[in-house]
What we know:
Layout: E1 2-11, H1 16-26, E2 31-38, E3 44-53, H2 55-67, E4 71-76, E5 82-93, H3 99-108, E6 112-116, E7 120-127, H4 129-139, E8 144-149, E9 153-156, H5 162-168
Amino acid sequence: MTRHTLIAWMEDKPGVLNRVAGLFRRRNFNIESLAVGHSETPGISRMTFVAAGDDREMRQVQTQLYKLINVTAVQDVTDIPTVTRELALIKVRARNGNRSEVMQLVDIFRASIVDVDMETLVVQIVGPEDRVDSLIDLLSQFGIVEMVRTGRVAMVRGAHDRAAAQKTAVPAYKNGHS
């Protein structure tokens, strides 16, 4: 089982995310991370998700995604050079005795402190998942009070865009997709 990163472009319409999640549920796939937001095209959202499966299963998922009426393009970027990032906000205990240690770790990881109070610091880190994981592991020794992570977002390196994705993606046989 390989962790695959897929990007899907879809119309900004109510219920589309629910239909995509339902597709994964019906196929008994677990979505490890999911990030959705507006794209560069008005009315089109971009969804990046990570799921474990073999190549055949992921091609099947791509084909099924294309069958959803509001999906305009799908691309598996697992084996394509990409820039991948994740954002995490981590609220960590930081009392007088350990506050400076936490601040040093934040500096080493090129993260930032975005909120401070007498008992805690909120740390923001943006970077590859392994760097986020490493900082979380180190901060856990101080006590993580609360944490949120965006999940992976990815963009193909270089001059590739959605049009290129449509040329390399699994073909669809509806609504003018070629």
